[in-house]
């Protein structure tokens, strides 16, 4: 039986329990995702991936985590102490908040908000702040370049992301992810992703860019900027950035599943399973892309956003408004 | 045959060489001070600078510039000799920008000063290396005569301006055998 | 241990020289010597305006080993193993250039079978070099997977070369007048099998990688150079052929038995990074075809001419040019008649190719500079020698 988060009456208890659950969920899924990524990368690259630690290398991420935790936390000379250490925390904290309005299951929404979508967009926008702080605070030129790139990138990609999300919100007439999910059915033709494929496509592209994943991983482009904004971070400082990246991948996949793929709804299986299946399908797509494509150049990235995705998203929005106007 | 442009390179000594046995077709020796003029002629002829090599001889440092056209068997070397006491000659990096690094390399290994070089600093060695490793000790140096095979047909064209005539047959033969 | 002092960095003389100039709102960035895409230990000083490169200056010498000095101090035979270490990716070509120049100097005739073996192993080695370049270049462009496929193919190659030479990377297989060992009996078959394998893989590489729109966006129109620029800087090999001149030392200045083989010389007129990329991809096929011809027509006979135990070439000088994977390799040897060369000069093609970089990189984005650097196909030990 799935635990019913809605049974906690007091909103504060629900928030605390929800947050704890989210932390556990993020931690666990982060580890699983590390394994999945390495395993998929391995198979894409004609090699088995992690193999020796535990069955099928399943314990590899735990060993990785232990290694990261055990490492010395080094700070470069001349770095701004407070900014430098605030950045990884700031990277990780907002992402966890983003999980709160996500409806994993009818009974498993940590916090039902009528403006859940806005909350997620607002807090995921905060992520870029941590990249700036990390790049600026570490007193490293590569970090600075990475930070500058990340600002331009997230400003450019938040616009079409927002527009594509708005198209769905307009169709559904709600900003509540729970509400949007319930408006879709269990079958693919009832999903917004199928009804409005353009918005789904734009959302996916922007999601990859927002999470700084290849082929849009410019802020940390290792062959150009060594490691970009987290060049100087070691141990858990780097670990938190790493975890935040995976957490935000899960968030955007979760939002995509809820907005475009019908969330927890699906035949036969329990809701939470369907939700996870959809989330992991999108995650696998992102991993697959990362290990297949070369990295785009910075101006190409911005061009793609401003010249293609933003106008397309606007057109899509207009179409949605017209359809909604005639329909309603 | 000694090509016609050699006459334009100023007062030079030229010697045809056998490509089959030396890999070169022509050796041109110029006064160190005239090197830029000589090489400007080669640039106009479309030659590519392959390499700059210096050697430490009894007579001084011999700087050897390897040139060839892009296509075909036509490697020629231009040589200039500078004394040990004042190893200085004009830089050709204004004509051939690619010579920049080659000259810096010669500066590294021999301490040869290329006048007019825009950026004459150590290239391969650290800046504070302190010595020039390929400079030979006095008694290890050999004279040019010890390094040249007998029968080099050097033609300095100083006495007679039209000196391209002699011994053309040898090089032509070498070229044709290589083609076959 | 001395405490780390950030000021000592500024005392590095190269940086100090580089710093002055119009540096208002400019960023001086030291790319390397430990940077993922400088392929080893090359350092490039950059002056950036935003991400645009105003000035670039490569700083060399981090793996300088003074091969030319060793050439003077070792006997002719002793210096041969050094040739495997100059350019570790195309060691055979360096072997050949040195062996060839000494053979010219000493007047040693190479038996026909040895020439065919030389051609076959050099072309195999060229393929392994190009495959590695391909993987590493895509790594520079942010694609992590192709290098694994390249290494997968390269593994078969290295096995073949190991069976022939006994080593997998730094070969010292040539000797004056031939090669050290005869090839094993199954060598032709293994070569042909490999050629078949590579040909079956190349279409996949073209579909998955070469035709990828992101890759094209990163390579096309980047780092354009014309023949004139290449000539002035002495850039050779795929860099020159990528600027439209179909020049290959194997044809232009024929050596060994290359005139007997029928092979095209790929060249592309665009002069950009993509042209250089395409030249190298085409050369994989060219080398395959040469290997096929060489192993199927390989004559019998001795594999090396009789060379004296202590080689003392007559006084004189000789140079020998070989087409390496990166361009024209030229070894110039001067002899005073003794057991050691009087002077050995190694012309590394990468050295001249890299010297164009400062010109090509000016005004480009940092990411383009990485792409240009990769497209020049650098092997730092060869450049630093």
TrEMBL record, chain A:
It is found in: Cell membrane; Membrane. GO terms for biological process: aerobic respiration. It holds the Pfam family NADHdh. InterPro entries: NADH_UbQ_OxRdtase_su1/FPO (IPR001694), NADH_UbQ_OxRdtase_su1_CS (IPR018086). It is an enzyme of class 7 (translocase). GO terms for cellular component: plasma membrane. GO terms for molecular function: NADH dehydrogenase activity; oxidoreductase activity, acting on NAD(P)H, quinone or similar compound as acceptor; quinone binding. PROSITE patterns: COMPLEX1_ND1_1, COMPLEX1_ND1_2. The chain crosses the membrane at residues 12-36, 82-104, 116-137, 157-178, 198-216, 236-261, 268-288, 308-327. Belongs to the complex I subunit 1 family. NDH-1 shuttles electrons from NADH, via FMN and iron-sulfur (Fe-S) centers, to quinones in the respiratory chain. The immediate electron acceptor for the enzyme in this species is believed to be ubiquinone. Couples the redox reaction to proton translocation (for every two electrons transferred, four hydrogen ions are translocated across the cytoplasmic membrane), and thus conserves the redox energy in a proton gradient. This subunit may bind ubiquinone. This is NADH-quinone oxidoreductase subunit H. It comes from Solidesulfovibrio aerotolerans.
UniProtKB/TrEMBL annotation, chain B:
Transmembrane segments: none annotated. Gene3D superfamilies: NADH:ubiquinone oxidoreductase, 30kDa subunit. Residues 28-139 form the NADH:ubiquinone oxidoreductase 30kDa subunit domain. InterPro entries: NADH_quin_OxRdtase_su_C/D-like, NADH_UbQ_OxRdtase_30kDa_su. One of its GO terms (molecular function) is NADH dehydrogenase (ubiquinone) activity. It holds the Pfam family Complex1_30kDa. It comes from the Bacteria. Belongs to the complex I 30 kDa subunit family. PANTHER family: NADH DEHYDROGENASE [UBIQUINONE] IRON-SULFUR PROTEIN 3, MITOCHONDRIAL, NADH DEHYDROGENASE UBIQUINONE IRON-SULFUR PROTEIN 3. This is NADH-quinone oxidoreductase subunit C. It comes from Solidesulfovibrio aerotolerans.
From TrEMBL, chain C:
SUPFAM superfamilies: HydB/Nqo4-like. Keywords: Cell membrane, Membrane, NAD, Oxidoreductase, Quinone, Translocase, Transport, Ubiquinone. Residues 1-23 are annotated as: Disordered. Its main location: membrane. It is an enzyme of class 7 (translocase). Residues 140-314 form the NADH-quinone oxidoreductase subunit D domain. It is found in: Cell membrane. It catalyses: a quinone + NADH + 5 H(+)(in) = a quinol + NAD(+) + 4 H(+)(out). It is a peripheral membrane protein. HAMAP family: NDH1_NuoD. Belongs to the complex I 49 kDa subunit family. NDH-1 shuttles electrons from NADH, via FMN and iron-sulfur (Fe-S) centers, to quinones in the respiratory chain. The immediate electron acceptor for the enzyme in this species is believed to be ubiquinone. Couples the redox reaction to proton translocation (for every two electrons transferred, four hydrogen ions are translocated across the cytoplasmic membrane), and thus conserves the redox energy in a proton gradient. NDH-1 is composed of 14 different subunits. Subunits NuoB, C, D, E, F, and G constitute the peripheral sector of the complex. This is NADH-quinone oxidoreductase subunit D. It comes from Solidesulfovibrio aerotolerans.
């Amino acid at each position: 039986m799935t635990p019913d988060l809605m049974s906690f009456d007091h909103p504060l208890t629900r928030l605390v329990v929800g947050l704890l659950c989210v932390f556990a969920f993020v931690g666990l899924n982060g580890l699983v995702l590390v394994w999945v990524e390495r395993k998929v990368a391995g198979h894409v690259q004609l090699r088995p991936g992690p193999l020796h630690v535990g069955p099928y290398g399943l314990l590899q991420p735990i060993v990785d985590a232990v290694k990261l935790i055990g490492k010395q936390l080094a700070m470069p000379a001349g770095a701004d102490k407070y900014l430098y250490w605030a950045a990884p925390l700031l990277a990780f904290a907002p992402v966890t908040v983003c999980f709160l309005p996500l409806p994993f299951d009818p009974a498993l929404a940590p916090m039902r908000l009528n403006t859940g979508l806005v909350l997620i967009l607002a807090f995921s926008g905060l992520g870029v702040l941590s990249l700036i702080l990390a790049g600026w605070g570490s007193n490293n030129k590569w970090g600075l370049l990475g930070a500058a790139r990340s600002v331009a990138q997230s400003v450019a990609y938040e616009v079409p992301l927002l527009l594509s999300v708005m198209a769905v919100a307009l169709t559904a007439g709600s900003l509540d992810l729970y509400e949007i999910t319930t408006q879709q059915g269990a079958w693919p033709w009832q999903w917004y992703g199928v009804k409005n494929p353009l918005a789904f496509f734009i959302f996916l592209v922007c999601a990859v860019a927002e999470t700084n994943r290849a082929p849009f991983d410019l802020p940390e482009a290792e062959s150009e900027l060594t490691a970009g904004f987290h060049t100087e971070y070691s141990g858990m400082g780097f670990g938190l950035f790493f975890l935040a990246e995976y957490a935000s991948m899960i968030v955007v996949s979760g939002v995509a599943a809820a907005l475009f793929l019908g969330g927890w709804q699906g035949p036969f299986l329990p809701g939470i399973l369907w939700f996870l299946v959809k989330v992991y399908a999108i995650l696998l797509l992102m991993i697959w892309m990362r290990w297949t494509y070369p990295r785009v150049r910075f101006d190409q990235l911005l061009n793609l956003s401003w010249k293609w995705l933003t106008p397309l998203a606007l057109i899509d929005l207009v179409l949605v408004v017209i359809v909604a106007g005639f329909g309603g | 045959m000694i090509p016609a442009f050699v006459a334009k390179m100023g007062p030079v000594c030229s010697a045809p060489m056998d490509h089959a046995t030396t890999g070169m077709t022509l050796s041109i020796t110029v006064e160190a001070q005239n090197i830029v003029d000589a090489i400007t002629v080669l640039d106009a002829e479309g030659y590519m600078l392959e390499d700059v090599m210096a050697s430490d001889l009894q007579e001084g440092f011999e700087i050897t510039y390897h040139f060839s056209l892009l296509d075909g068997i036509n490697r020629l070397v231009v040589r200039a000799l500078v004394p040990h006491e004042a190893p200085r000659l004009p830089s050709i990096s204004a004509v051939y920008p690619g010579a920049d690094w080659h000259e810096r390399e010669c500066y590294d290994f021999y301490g040869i000063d290329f006048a007019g070089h825009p950026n004459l600093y150590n290239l391969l060695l650290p800046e504070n290396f302190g010595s020039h490793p390929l400079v030979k000790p006095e008694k290890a140096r050999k004279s040019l005569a010890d390094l040249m095979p007998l029968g080099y047909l050097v033609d300095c064209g100083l006495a007679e301006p039209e000196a391209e005539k002699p011994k053309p047959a040898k090089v032509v033969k070498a070229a044709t055998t290589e083609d076959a | 241990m001395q405490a780390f002092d950030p000021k000592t960095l500024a005392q590095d003389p190269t940086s100090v020289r580089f710093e002055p100039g119009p540096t208002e709102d400019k960023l001086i960035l030291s790319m390397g010597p430990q940077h993922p895409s400088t392929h080893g230990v090359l350092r490039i000083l950059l002056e950036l305006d935003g991400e645009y490169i105003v000035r670039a200056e490569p700083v060399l010498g981090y793996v300088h080993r003074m091969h030319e000095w060793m050439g003077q101090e070792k006997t002719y035979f002793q210096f041969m193993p050094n040739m495997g270490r100059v350019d570790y990716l195309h060691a055979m070509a360096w072997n050949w250039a040195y062996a060839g120049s000494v053979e010219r100097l000493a007047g040693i005739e190479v038996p026909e079978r040895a020439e065919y073996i030389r051609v076959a192993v050099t072309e195999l080695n060229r393929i392994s070099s190009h495959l590695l370049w391909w993987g590493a270049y895509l790594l520079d462009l942010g694609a992590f997977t192709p290098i694994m496929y390249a290494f997968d193919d390269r593994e078969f190659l290295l096995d073949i070369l190991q069976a022939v030479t006994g080593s997998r990377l730094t070969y010292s297989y040539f000797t004056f007048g031939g090669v050290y060992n005869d090839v094993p009996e199954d060598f032709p078959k293994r070569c042909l099998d490999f050629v078949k394998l590579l040909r079956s893989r190349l279409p996949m590489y073209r579909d998955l990688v070469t035709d990828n729109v992101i890759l094209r966006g990163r390579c096309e129109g980047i780092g354009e150079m014309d023949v004139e620029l290449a000539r002035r800087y002495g850039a050779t090999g795929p860099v020159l052929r990528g600027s439209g001149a179909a020049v290959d030392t194997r044809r232009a200045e024929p050596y060994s038995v290359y005139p007997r083989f029928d092979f095209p010389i790929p060249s592309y007129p665009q002069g950009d990074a993509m042209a250089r990329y395409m030249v190298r991809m085409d050369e994989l096929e060219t080398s395959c075809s040469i290997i096929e011809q060489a192993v199927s027509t390989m004559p019998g006979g001795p594999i090396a001419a009789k060379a004296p135990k202590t080689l003392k070439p007559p006084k004189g000088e000789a140079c020998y040019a070989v087409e390496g994977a990166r361009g024209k390799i030229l070894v110039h040897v001067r002899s005073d008649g003794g057991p050691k060369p009087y002077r050995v000069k190694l012309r590394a093609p990468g050295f001249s190719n890299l010297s164009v970089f400062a010109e090509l990189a000016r005004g480009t984005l940092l990411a383009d500079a990485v792409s240009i650097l990769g497209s020049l196909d650098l092997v730092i030990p060869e450049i630093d020698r």
